[in-house]
């Protein structure tokens, strides 16, 4: 059964509100509303010892009846998501709808003790035991019943515990480099990103990590983050076909658009491989870096433009609008941006009087014309005022890759006379918060220390 069934609109709004609110009461209500998505109790007994699972008996026990996981079978890369997410008809990855970003403050020892590391690892393995990894690798899956997550650490954390890795540029420095206010930097020590198509899955995972429930999806919670991490911030978001039109108060958003600006993203040619953004050498080999941003967006002004103007500014003015489609669906697997498009921003500006966002950021691709940032979320912020904010999360081998791509969006990088509102999408966005993190490989994810050699 797909989440986008005939009851989808009402459930989406309800689940979005529940995930944004959080807490045991919201989790219980959300679980009940989503029960049709996760099957019956008998479905959940498959693969469990003795053919039975504990059933919820109190409000501290949450058996969500979704498939459980096998931690020892997972990749050593925390960021290995592609095999465990849904793929559309063109082979593009489809990130799960429900997103929860937890900004964390470290309250443990400096440097961390082995007991603290064991506690954090135990808490994360509880989640991997309770929930399958995303779709479980099922290539025919139509939605993600399980959980995907990754835990990253900031320069602030590493300063306290042994030295900042070279490839981890502090958020304040990133903001300065791209011409933004360094005061917008988050002061988190760590960030946990979680995704699922089931809202109660991310909520139950959060509750388990912070000792708010005793069992999660039939698995006893023995280790938590308590005493090691506390929550400094909590950001909920949603992404997916039709969601912006359902949950935002803006009648101009196309009904089938997956993102609030009306067009698809995540085309194969605009995303690097997971191998391409993986650290190859040094003590953090197998990991990656992550940039987490909360951005404001001026949708009213964006939709004051015609579809043709928006398509040109999102992709490239040389693209035929009829070949893009209402939301970019006619492009199929690829955005159609070429090296010539990327190299000709000034020429296109003179010819068309506007330039495209995808065209501009393509200038930051590598020598093989491969993008350097793997987008993991662009979700509508459901915990913010309607339509004013969204979450953007990107992975890259070095934070400087993010810097170079973000700088390519700036109008002052180009020698042309195009007005800011016609220069891609940058004039419609405002940075509210940014964080930069190092995401270690799974064996090192529990309170790492050291520098990147």
TrEMBL record:
> Per its UniProt record, what InterPro entries does this chain match?
DUF7405, TAT_signal
- A Pfam family (short name) is DUF7405
Q: Which domain of life is it from?
A: Archaea
Locate the region Disordered.
33-72, 261-281
Would you tell me the protein name for this molecule?
A: Tat pathway signal protein
